[in-house]
Amino acid sequence: MAMKATVTVFLFLSLFGLNTSLYREHYYVNEYMEWSDARRYCKTNHDDLSTVSNEELQSLSDNPQISYGYYLIGLSRDPNDPERWIWTGGEDATNVMWDRGEPNTVYDECGAVKKSTAKVHDASCFWPIPFYCMEVFELILVQQESTWEEALQYCRQNYIDLAGLSSDVIMTEAKNKSTPALTDDVWIGLRFIAGHWFWVNGEDLDYKVWSGDEELQCPAMDQHCGVYDVKQKNWKPADCEQRLNFLCVKKPLNYLFE
């Protein structure tokens, strides 16, 4: 069963000539698979085995859902050069946080992270252990003035969904992407129904940046949709029939997965 980790990270890419900012989310899969099978699972259900920065290693390893002492990531030796390690996206892995004495043998050709040290080990590609998959996303501002329902429909027809701003990282991206907005507020995927606020993309609403100290538990009848306030850089309830710009989330077409 795939379990979503609490880590989201920016990718500031010039990869393949791309000049944009993306973010990736990691999913812990509590199933025991060999590296190639794990990658096949990730490519089927997400994007790929996780590319992990050194800054992410500790947060991923702290995930309480981890059931084993090691987990696989999207790191392997270059089959044409055993001294070279690469990520599944083809990037050189030149700044890997190896554990002491690692890598220690040319016969171990895949990468795994030791939970207790949050550092990388070389490992047999045939060692069945849990693993992390990743998905890569991009926010896009639509400078079209629409109601909340119209914005939701537009995002789902043309991209993936209205944006869920579920972490500091994505909030920073929302701040950057909404700067050229033609309205002071922009629609996001927040909705109030049956006594609860929720993200329409199904994400947990654990992370909160409301304009007041707490979210409104009982907003007015005409205040059941959520906006990102471009100037105040927080969320607030709004009339769903207002016509505003909005933030969609999409898959970056130029990010290649082999």
UniProtKB/TrEMBL annotation:
Q: Which residues form the C-type lectin domain?
A: 27-134, 129-249
Tell me the domain of life.
Eukaryota
Q: Matching Pfam families, A to Z?
A: Lectin_C (PF00059)
Which first-to-last residue range defines the signal peptide? 1-21
Question: Keywords in UniProt for this one?
Answer: Signal
| Protein name according to UniProt | C-type lectin domain-containing protein
Q: Which organism is it from?
A: Culter alburnus (Topmouth culter)
